[in-house]
Design brief:
Blueprint: H1 2-10, H2 17-35, E1 38-42, E2 49-53, H3 54-67, H4 78-91, H5 101-104
Antiparallel strand pairs: 1-2
Length: about 110
């Protein structure tokens, strides 16, 4: 996440003085985050961001996975589900106009 934010600012106008100040600040922040083994993440229940130690974040993710009995899958089921959706929509000719299928199915 933090990389995309930084990358977006880097690619903007390189000759702008304001941009150069922002770039300096971003580079300083990246250095501080790296020194403290921290990262920036989106807060759980708001649009805020949080700076958190990477080890703490890993522990929280592992605890969440364990508490919610999440299992890993051998294969991504997305393709299977998308094919089922396409098949079902093809059978719904009278309900859903065929010309609108492409707007409903996002693939």
């Amino acid at each position: 996440m933090e990389f995309r934010v930084f990358k977006g600012i880097q690619e903007s106008n390189m000759h702008n003085i304001k941009h150069k100040r922002q770039q300096y600040t971003i580079n300083k922040l990246k250095g501080i985050l790296k020194q403290n083994n921290s990262t920036i993440v989106k807060a759980d229940k708001s649009k805020a961001i949080v700076i958190i130690n990477k080890d703490d974040l890993d522990q929280k993710i592992k605890a969440f996975i364990k508490q919610n009995n999440i299992l890993t899958m051998n294969k991504d089921p997305t393709d299977k589900f998308q094919k089922q959706i396409q098949k079902t929509m093809a059978q719904c000719i009278g309900i859903i106009d065929k010309r609108k299928h492409k707007y409903i199915i996002n693939m």
